[in-house]
Write a structure and sequence with these properties.
The complex is a heterodimer of chains A (about 270) and B (about 575). Chain A is built from nine helices and no strands. Chain A is mainly alpha-helical and about 270 residues long. Chain A is elongated. With about 575 residues, chain B is α/β, with parallel strands linked by helices. Chain B has two domains: about 230 residues, Rossmann fold; about 230 residues, P-loop containing nucleotide triphosphate hydrolases (Rossmann fold). In chain B, helix 4 packs across helix 5, helix 5 packs across helix 7 and helix 15 runs parallel beside helix 17. Chain B is globular. The model of chain B has no long low-confidence stretch (mean pLDDT about 85). The chains are: A mainly alpha (about 270), B alpha/beta (about 575).
Amino acid sequence: MRLLRNRAIRVSGVILLVISVFALFGPWISPNDYLSTSFDRSLLPPSTVGAHLFGTDDLGRDLFVRTMLGIRVTLMVAIVASFVSLVIGVTYGAIAGFVGGRVDAAMMRFVDTLYALPFIFFVILLMVAFERNFLLIFVAIGAVNWLDMARIVRGQTLSLREREFVDAARLTGVSTGRIIFRHIAPNLIGIVVVYVTLTIPQAILVESFLSFLGLGVQEPQTSLGALVDAGVNQMEGAAWVLLIPAGLLAAILMCFNFLGDGLRDFFDARHVD
Amino acid sequence: MSLLRIKGLSIQYGDTVVVDDLGFSISRGESVGLVGESGSGKSQTALAVLGLLPRSASLSGSIRFDGTELVGAPEQTLNQLRARRIGIVFQDPMQALNPYLRIGRQLREILVRHKVAQGVNIDARVIDMLTRVGLSDATRQVRAYPHQLSGGMRQRVMLASALIAEPDLLIADEPTTALDVTVQAQILELLEDIRDETALLLITHDLGIVAGHCERMVVLESGRVVDAGPTTSLFASPGHAHTRVLLNAAPRIDTANIPPPATGASVFGVEAAAVSYKAFGHERLQAVQDVSFSLRCGETIAIVGESGSGKSSFVRAVLGLVPMEAGRAVYAGAPLQGPVERRAKNQRRDLQLVFQDPVSALNPQMRVQKIIGESLLVHEPQLSKRERAARVIEALEQVGLDDSYLCRYPHELSGGQAQRVAIARALVLGPKVLICDEAVAALDGSVRERVLELLRRVQDDSGLSIIFISHDLAVVRSISHRVLVMYMGHMVELADNSSLFVRPRHPYTKALIDAVPVPDPIVAPKKAPLRGEVPSLLNPPSGCVFHPRCGYAKDICALELPVARDLKGTRVACHRAEEIDLSRQS
């Protein structure tokens, strides 16, 4: 497959796959669970003794299982948030770009208005107003990310709309909806896929940031951000509590960024040949 | 001794051979035409001479320029030669000129770099050169940026930059392909003027240009030289079958092999159509004004004119893609009005459009089957999947393609195949009026001939009426029954094919015809019939819009807009149409 001939895609894809498989199945394989605490086992360094591969935290919980769990949550938040932004952003942007004129102006001014809202303030408000839960994080991140997507898709649609195959479709009487979904949308795929892979790390960062501030996932549930937050307190004396989740977070972010770059090259190449 | 001698030149990209064992030579002061269809390796050869091939190309053989071997020569040697001793003009001057530098600066750079002139001399030389290539008001224009000049002016600047260091050889790669015919004639005249001092390698697909401007020609086919020799003798007796194919495919404006007049009933008509666009500020740009004609069943009417004449705006308004400002269009007794989305279903089925650029007109993400089948889905939803597939195949066969093309994507098709798919899409619904907007302009000679033949056949079979928009009068001559000439949005002349080309009534028509190069070396190239370029539509001339460029203009022409009137079967809008005789003596 041509996709796999690109080295950036291949390497980062494999690393992400390995991390995801571990995150999915690791907690099953490990004899430990993420909940049980024990002061005897507080802050053990990584070792095979008792299968604490990544050591334990200050409450004696197994860090391997907790990290795997954190990755699950982080990846899920990122993927769901990106999906939300994808669906809303592409639909919104494609409609604004294709219909054009006043509709376009009104829709884009609305986007501009949302852009002006201070994001962190918005999230804190949401957290205070509603009970803290998982769903809210998805909503908060998705609600912000789709704005960029909408702008990008709108710009692309504006230029696609001028292409003659759209005129050809209009002339034969293809309905507007069908033109958007059958003629415009498939031609947006390249740019959208690339943008989504770049949105994922952004969502991960936002989630980690929120968890780090204590606004994200709540104990005993965890995410990579929350783990890093906990690790910072143990930085002196038990560096692994910080370094392992932080290192994995960095690895995941880098892989998604490389994947995005690789995909961009891949779609560019298709343009050439 | 020859100035440039190419021997056994081969260029390869990976396993693909684009130029194979090619050889020819050019003597001092000689002009040689390099002809061939797209992909025959013409431009690759030119780039090889200049040492500008991409790194991925592997090069073998020998290119000797005035005793220096260029294949494998160090970059420094090539740099010494380029611009100083070998000048180059590319097809698209907008891409070849730096948009951020004033044109004067770009010319100075060459002189300074090669130490051709020094000090105060430089500016004088730049202005002198720009004046020589016909840039009006060169002292002021040296300060212009490329985007402030028209296409023709940019190409003149390009030519100036190629010639300013007085090179021994000028390579011109399709120098006039992007230009209007009247401007092309002016540029070719310039090339003619410099021939005493400079050898010319003219790369072109247009045999008319070669016939008029080259002493020898070299014919390429898929990277090989198939024929070479003096232009006159090759035209008289081509040595290779491919040369004959190229010659036969070159349409001639001066031979009469024209279709007899059509006699069917009128199916389509336009009355006083006008289109305008909002320009910057509150001004409106009048793109089309007062165009009227009617079209018979089975008739082809050609609309010709230079860029900016309003041809495309006119058809877009007729089809409802842009609003028509005034006037009306009628199809089969019913008015065509409103945007295309609100038009009656039969109107949308019976009027079909074929675009100029097939690559842009086909959705790159759809397979041929879906591209053609989509209109059936809209207009004949009762068809079963199998019936629809059968109709698609039928349409493909009509345009000379078979069902192996069904599953291809547009990028897997050649230009000619893609255009045939676009035509199949237009024909699948069995339209009554087909509008071709420069539909053959982007195609190679032999492919173009096949597409035109196809249109003629469909017309004979089904009584299709065609509105054929083109800037190429030679093609128009061979396909149309009647011709409508437009200039700056105005209809200046409407006449039968036979009378228009033999006895044009409007000076502009005459100029257009004279500007077309004739693919026959015996017919001497005429002097460029028109000076200057089409004025801006934002600030059109008073009275007759053509008067500033017209050789027959009188006082009245600057004051009053001429009204179109009938004159012996021709409709013409010229104050002096009755007095002046524009018949072609030949």
